[in-house]
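Researcher: Here's my situation. A collaborator sent me these components and asked whether they could plausibly form a single complex. I don't have experimental data yet, so a predicted model of the whole assembly would be a useful starting point for our discussion.
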Amino acid sequence: MGDGRVGGGTNRPAWLQQYELVGKIGEGTYGLVFLARLKQSHPHAAAGVGRRGSPIAIKKFKQSKEGDGVSPTAIREIMLLREINHENVVKLVNVHINHADMSLYLAFDYAEHDLYEIIRHHREKLNLPINPYTVKSLLWQLLNGLNYLHSNWIIHRDLKPSNILVMGEGEEHGIIKIADFGLARIYQAPLKPLSDNGVVVTIWYRAPELLLGAKHYTSAVDMWAVGCIFAELLTLKPLFQGVEAKATPNPFQLDQLDKIFKVLGHPTVEKWPTLANLPCWQNDQQHIQGHKYENTGLHNIVHLPQKSPAFDLLSKMLEYDPRKRITAAQALEHDALLPSQAGEKIVQYPVRPVDTTTDFEGTTSLQPTQAPSGNAAPGNQSVVPRPIPRQMQQPMVGMSRMGGTNMAAFGAAPQGGIAGMNPGNIPMQRGAGAQSHPHQLRRKADQGMGMQNPGYPTQQKRRF
Amino acid sequence: MAANFWTSSHCEGSKQLLDQEDVDKVPQADSDRGITPEEFRLVKIHMSFLLQIKANHLMISDIWRLAQQVKVRQRVIATAVTYFRRVYTRKSMTEYDPRLVAPTCLYLASKVEESTVQARLLVFYIKKMCASDEKYRFEIKDILEMEMKLLEALDYYLVVYHPYRPLLQCFDFRLLQDAGITDLTQFAWGIVNDTYKMDLILIHPPYMIALACIYIASVLKDKDITLWFEELRVDMNIVKNISMEILDFYDTYKIDPQRGLPEDKIAPVMNKLPSKA
């Protein structure tokens, strides 16, 4: 991986020269994210990791607070991503260090879209729901990646639409990549209770057991988040939009619980026996236990018939009791995810806005390299959309991967270690679904097939 | 993968398991300073010992309350020692001062194992424990700079497996009926700890090391578990070879469990290393 030597004469590390910076595409508490392109003749081109000109997202970690060295977030990401290899998980292509300012850079394959932007585009620009076929495909891929993580004892702990990336034009067009492992961890043999890490998961996607202060939790917290994301894909609105009570060490979040209970009804000890042991259930009795909630009905919100397989799957993801909540492996087998007729509609998603005035140091001193274009995002002149609009042919989004390709991925995925110790103690039938899938496609045949081809002749041969 | 040794970077992918010759090879910069293979090994033994002993002190006294079980500390330390040994299959001691690398490995391992030790505390304890030795005077800044260099030297592979889990699993599953079991477990556990004074973790899969330790324990405690080993269907030649290596090591170095290598043995080697600039 990276070479931290400082390049000749300048203060810039040598590795920086293999990238051509395009601009800044994101910012978070951890640091900045840049879009760059690999220049010619760099070591990875030789290794086949990236090709010349291929876009790379570079995540720069800020030097964490004085005297703490490399942030635990960065350590977790490096440690886990260095071990992980799955089609539906973001690929770490390189790590770099700039010893001069002690900053750390992670280089990933660039993904043009994410579920946050896709949902927003449908809500604000198109005013149209995402077609059910696409929802199904996105959900299946998300579960496929998550099943891989869970069967390897990794909990993501921060699933939300903006962390679910979708590849743009190219070989992997439409493929989902689970990203941001800054909160993820291995839970096989924790040295300390997981709750020692403080609160995890953005509040809207946070499972009820976390909101009630569970000390020990499982991969089921990720499945709750998937349920919330599933509902959001259907309605284009976050399912439980609670207001976060900040600046409290207490995990108890009354407003968020309130939003959940209003839709799903009041949890009961009969249906969720371990509820009685959760700290906040006991301590905040008057707040939660006293209140009576009408069950408004999830089906009314997501507009699904109560008898439909999709509704059944969603309600199993939003099961209160984490032990009864459906696992990723089980969900992949669910009737709602059986292959179906592809939709025909093509939706064009906007590319990520790039701030071309920011350099790797994060300073905004560069002049814009291109003239601001007419369709630049309002309020930011320097946002230059790439000129050619891409078409993301929705029906193809990953659904084609349900056949042989994923079967191979399943077979290759190392399975959970010790028998009978899977999260939730529910027998997993890994890979069975993929194997029994009637449409087993060879990888070559389905790779990128029809993705950039609005006529998609090949697709019509397939019988979904 | 991160939770399965067979597909992890420790076993596969990055060729983390090495041959003995690769592990024993003295880096050019070190042999230029007149450091022999034996001396190279001595430094590693010495620093592993320091890490195990001092880290135990450090952690018992301050970081973890005593209630925390022994396993906690052992895994962090074992990971730290493994990092330490991996670094010197690629870097020289001349360039990477073992006196700084060792505590930094502990620092990094504590983060990886989600039991972070603050750099500030680490520096405080090194100063306290090695007050007499000028060469151990490091500041927080040194640790943090070295942390980055270590990440690079380790090629960012941070997940490490240890013999402790397979050891416990063996006892859990197969020997439970045996009455003298706790005796044997603890004895074998102690031997596993000692294997970190050698490079075994860089060469053999952790479960084979665990089996070798069980084998030694059973022989020394006069318990016949030949049948049990037969059922395992592992290559007993490898298990026996590892066992012989461990016994040879005990024989050769006769390390005092409290004090480590005698000063007159280690001091001349340490003096060959450049002191901090």
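Model: Some features of this prediction you could bring to your collaborator: Chain B touches chain A at residues 1-4, 6-9, 71-72, 75-76, 107-108, 111-116, 118-120, 140, 143-145, 147-149, 151-152, 155-159, 165 (CB under 8 Å). The first helix of chain B runs from residue 20 to 24.
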